[in-house]
Structures are given as C-alpha cells and as structure tokens.
C-alpha cells in the first residue's frame, strides 16, 4: 500500500492556501498549511512533512531564508518553491539552498501535483536519484566515431569507416558504440550532421523508390526476378555523390551536465535518434536512443531487486 504523502503548504495568501489545500487533499495528500516562514518551521518540527510547498514572497517573510533553515535542520524534507515574480537571483539562491524545484504562480495544479510526487520519490528512495547519471556519463565520446568532411563522397566515407574499424580491437568493435555511424564536419571541423544507415536508405529511396511500382498482377508476379540487381545498381550510383547531399544535417545538443530527463525530453520533442553533448561550447560526445534504452533497462533491473 502506498504511503500517504504529507505536504506542508506555506503561503501568505489565504485564498490560495485554502483552495490549493483542498485540491491536494482530494488527490490523496495529507495537507497542513502555514502563512509564513516562522509558522512553517514550527509545523515542520511538529508534523514532519515529506514535501514543503513554499512561497518565496510572503510579505515580511522571506521564503528563501526559510528554505535555508529547512535544508539545514531537516535535509530530508523536499522543498518546492513558488513565486509570483520570476527572479533569476531568487532562482539561483533556491538552487544553491537545495530547493527541489522552482515554480511560478499561477501554478498549473496538475503539474504541481506531479512535482510533489517527484519530490517525495527523491527522498523516499533514499536519495538514489542523486546517483542518476548526467549526459556526460552516458555519452559516447566523439573520438570513438569516424569523422568525415561534408565534401567526401559516400565511397570515401565507407573507406574511412573500414580503415577506422580495422584499428579497433575485436572485443571493442563487437560492442558497437556508434561505429556504424559517421560524423560529418564542416571546413572548421565542427560537427554539422551524421551519416547513418537511415540516411543511406533514404537516399536509395529517393533514387528509385519514388517511381510507382507496377500494379499489374502479372508484372507483380514476376517482379522478384526482374528487380534483382536494382539495389546494387542504386548503391553504385550513390557511392560517388557527396556526403553533404545525403547526411542528416542537424547538430542539436544538450549540456554535459544535463539530466537524463532533459536529454530524453529534448530527443523526444525534436524526434531525434541521437543528440550531441557539449561542454563549454565544444562537442564532446553523443547520446543515442540506445544509451537511453539501456539505462531504462538498468533502472528496471534495480527496481526488480528491491
């Protein structure tokens, strides 16, 4: 049976406290309220909530100051900050003082509820989330890939890929690690795209696939004999065109310190199979959907052993 999550809602607006508390209670939370930082600290000592939802600006009471005290005296209590005025310096203070999240009002209540669950999970799971990998720990370094210039032909790209792979020990080569993909560089040697199997198949399709297939029953019956060799001919035609004309021309990236959720969200929202990882303006690695899939598997195995 799931534990009831205890929430302390701290805000000097009585109407907001009352309305939000009722909604949270209907969602199954056990809710206490406080109107300022001082009464919030007293309630925490008395009630020991799991999650505190704390307003930043409460008249004469400073929410950031209350956050600082809460994290010093009750480090296992997760705190979500609320503010009616988005302020960069206040956000930075909240981050350094250990806030779990920082939301602006009017707050979307379903989103607030989801973040309360997330905040509770971060503590209830013995802070295991702090061991979660960042982008830099999941990426494949760019030096593990074969790189080519955009004016290379497809034939030259494959020749370089084979040459690169011959220098790799067989046990490493068997692991894959992106060696079937190539990075495309511009004249300044900056990554501008990829050449993968998907792009090559798209190029083959563009060469011939746009021509309508014959629909006649007799033609379709014998097609398997007469279409032999078409693939080879199309590949031969493809080998001498430039990589730039067939590559996937994108260089979307995330920061090296990005969370895996940020990585997943960026890839999903932009329909990406892979994304670059940057550190101080330089591309240092690549995360593919395979790495995220493997990490999901690791988490699933951990959960089954609990």
Mean pLDDT: 81
CATH class of the largest domain: Alpha Beta
Radius of gyration: 28 Å
Q: Please name the CATH architecture of the largest domain.
A: Roll
Please tell me the total number of domains: 2
Global structural class? alpha/beta
Strand arrangement in the largest pleated sheet: 2-1-3-6-7
Number of helices: 13
Helix percent reads: 40-55%
Corresponding CATH superfamily of the largest domain: CBS-domain
Oligomer: single chain
Uncertain segments are none
Note the run of SSEs as H and E: EHEHEEEHEHEHHEEHHEEHHHEHEEH
Which term fits the overall shape?
elongated
Summarize the main sheet. 5 strands, parallel
β-strand number: 14
Structural account:
- This protein has 306 residues and is an alpha/beta fold.
- 46% of the residues lie in helices and 20% in strands.
- It has 13 helices and 14 strands.
- Strands 2-1-3-6-7 form a five-stranded parallel beta sheet, sandwiched between helices. Strands 8-14-13-12 form a four-stranded mixed beta sheet.
- α1 links the parallel β1 and β2 (30-34).
- α2 runs parallel beside α3 (63-73).
């Amino acid at each position: 049976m799931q534990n009831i999550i205890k929430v302390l809602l701290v805000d000097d607006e009585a109407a907001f406290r009352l309305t939000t508390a009722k909604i949270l209670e209907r969602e199954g939370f056990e809710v206490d309220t406080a109107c300022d930082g001082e009464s919030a600290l007293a309630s925490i000592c008395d009630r020991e909530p799991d999650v505190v939802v704390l307003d930043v600006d409460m008249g004469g009471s400073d929410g950031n100051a209350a956050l600082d005290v809460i994290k010093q005296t009750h480090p296992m209590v997760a705190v979500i900050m609320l503010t009616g005025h988005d302020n960069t310096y206040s956000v930075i203070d909240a981050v350094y003082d250990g806030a779990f999240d920082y939301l602006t009002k009017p707050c979307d209540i379903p989103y607030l509820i989801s973040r309360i669950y997330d905040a509770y999970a971060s503590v209830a799971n013995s802070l295991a989330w702090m061991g979660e990998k960042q982008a830099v720990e999941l990426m494949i370094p760019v030096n593990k890939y074969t790189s080519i210039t955009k004016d290379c032909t497809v034939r030259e790209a494959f020749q370089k890929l084979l040459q690169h792979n011959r220098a790799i020990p067989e046990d490493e080569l068997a692991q894959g690690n992106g060696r079937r993909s190539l990075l495309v560089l511009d004249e300044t040697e900056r990554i501008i795209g990829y050449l993968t199997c998907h792009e090559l198949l798209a190029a083959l399709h563009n060469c011939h696939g746009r021509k309508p297939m014959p629909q006649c029953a007799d033609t379709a019956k014998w097609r398997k004999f007469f279409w032999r060799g078409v693939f080879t001919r199309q590949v031969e035609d493809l080998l001498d065109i430039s990589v730039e004309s067939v590559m996937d021309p994108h260089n979307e990236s995330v920061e090296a310190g990005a969370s895996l959720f940020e990585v997943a969200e960026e890839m999903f929202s932009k329909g990406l199979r892979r994304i670059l990882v940057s550190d101080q303006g330089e591309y240092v690695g690549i995360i593919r959907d395979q790495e995220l899939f493997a990490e999901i598997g690791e988490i699933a195995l951990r959960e089954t052993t609990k």
